[in-house]
Specification:
- With about 400 residues, the protein is an alpha+beta fold.
- The chain has 3 domains: about 80 residues, Elongation Factor Tu (Ef-tu), domain 3 (Beta Barrel), CATH 2.40.30; about 150 residues, Threonyl-tRNA Synthetase, Chain A, domain 2, CATH 3.30.980; about 110 residues, Diaminopimelate Epimerase, Chain A, domain 1.
- The protein has 9 helices and 22 strands.
- Strands 6-5-9-2-3-8-7 form a 7-stranded antiparallel β-sheet, with no helix packed on it. It has a 6-stranded mixed β-sheet with strand order 17-18-19-20-22-21, sandwiched between helices.
- A hairpin with a 2-residue loop joins strand 15 and strand 16.
- The structure holds zinc ion.
- Zinc ion (ZN) binds next to helix 2.
Length: about 400
């Protein structure tokens, strides 16, 4: 026996009675099959409804080979059951899904863009449209047209259409099934085969907002929001605007100019900081050169630093090895150990071999060239032993 699909005729029906005609144990849960249902099973890019059957929460509704299964964790009492649909969730799906028909029809009408796929998720709604190019002006046109259709409050109806009528209908896309083709019509605007749930009039979709787009295989993927999601999105954007106004001490229309100034100032400050840092590192390198010791004819600077940035140590090492006859063995010790070994051009010492010879002491890994090598290790307690061992290797004439 096929379950009667009540949502086809009345997507606003949220309370109904039904009879359980089959109970399928599925893993730790049960799949209830009813004689009639208003629960929409996940399909065609639209998630399933949730709600209650006989007071037991319905977690998910699936369709397997035409059989609609209502997934529950416990079985309700008896077979005649009162059922209810979570209306907020259903209305949200109806708004987003009808919004998708409108947006897809606008893309088709304005730019001949076909909709390749539709996904209605909890956090985002997306469609993929077959387009060669897209820009902000096109987005404004699509959004404007979509919202005009919403404001016109056109009736949205659905009916099973026979082959004869199907031939003459201006369908936006071909049906994906062969029999019982259900066509959703937005009066005088769009005709599309679809099995989902939709609002009765386009006005119920509310505001339609294209949020963002990115290139994808064969076109562009668009994210959009409708109705209650558009309101939630507006509130989010508004809170961000307020935060920026507070932080920048400006009014909303001044944010753009304030941000541009801030970024210019920031870049200049970064540049200045880099120059000052370079100068400081040069002083530090001078001091370290004075502390260097001769090992096997090479002036070696070996030192461990706590809480320093490895990039600073790289600059420091570069400064040191500009002098002929020098080697720098520098270690940066934070939560882990980072190491940089490098030498002047004229020094005969293979830094890659040296670092590999002593790395086991700090459980390290890494490598490089004879002139410079680097890597990291985990044993922060063995850093002093690590450096002593490296000096010993140099002394031995590695
Ligand atoms: Zn639809």
């Amino acid at each position: 026996m096929q379950t009667a699909r009540l949502y086809y005729d009345d997507p606003y029906l949220i309370n109904f009675t039904a009879r359980i005609i089959q109970t399928l144990p599925i893993g730790e849960k049960y799949g209830l099959v009813l004689d009639r249902t208003a629960f929409y099973p996940e399909s065609g890019g639209q998630p399933s409804d949730t709600g209650h059957i006989g007071g037991i929460p319905v977690l998910h509704v699936t369709e397997e080979n035409g059989q609609i299964r209502h997934m529950v964790e416990r079985l309700p009492c008896g077979t005649a059951v009162e059922c209810s649909i979570d209306w907020q969730r259903r209305l949200d799906h109806m708004q987003q899904h009808t919004g998708q028909h409108i947006v897809s029809a606008c893309f088709a009408s304005l730019y001949n863009g076909d909709t390749d796929s539709f996904h209605l998720g909890r956090d985002s709604v997306s469609i993929e449209i077959n387009l060669d190019r897209f820009d902000v002006d096109m987005a404004v046109r699509v959004e404007t047209m979509a919202n005009e259709i919403a404001v016109k409050n056109l009736p949205v109806t659905a009916e099973i259409v026979d082959d004869m009528r199907l031939q003459i209908m201006p369908l936006r896309k071909r049906p994906s099934v062969a029999d019982n083709i259900r066509v959703v019509q937005i009066q005088g605007f769009d005709y599309s085969p679809c099995g989902g749930t939709h609002v009765g009039h386009t006005g119920e979709v509310g505001l339609i907002r294209l949020k963002k787009w990115e290139k994808c295989k064969g076109g562009y993927r668009f994210q959009f929001v409708c109705g209650s999601r558009a309101l939630a999105d507006y509130r989010l954007q508004d809170s961000i605007t307020r935060l920026l106004c507070d932080q920048l001490s400006v009014r909303d229309f001044e944010i753009k100019a304030a941000m541009e100034k801030l970024m210019t100032d920031y870049k200049a400050a970064q540049k200045e900081l880099a120059a000052v840092k370079q100068e400081l590192l040069a002083y530090e390198a001078d001091r370290l050169l004075k502390e260097s010791r001769t090992v096997n004819g090479i002036r070696v600077v070996s030192k461990a630093f706590d809480g320093r940035n490895i990039n600073d140590l790289k600059l420091l090492a570069q400064s040191i090895i500009q002098q002929p006859g020098h080697a720098a063995l520098l270690v940066c010790r934070n939560d882990a150990v980072q190491v940089i070994f490098s030498r002047s051009e004229d020094v005969d010492l293979d830094m890659s071999r040296l670092i590999k010879a002593v790395f086991p002491i700090i459980n390290g890994k890494g490598g490089g060239s004879p002139k410079a090598a680097q890597g990291g290790g985990s044993n922060t307690a063995a850093v002093e032993d690590f450096l002593s061992a490296a000096l010993l290797e140099i002394e031995k004439g590695l």
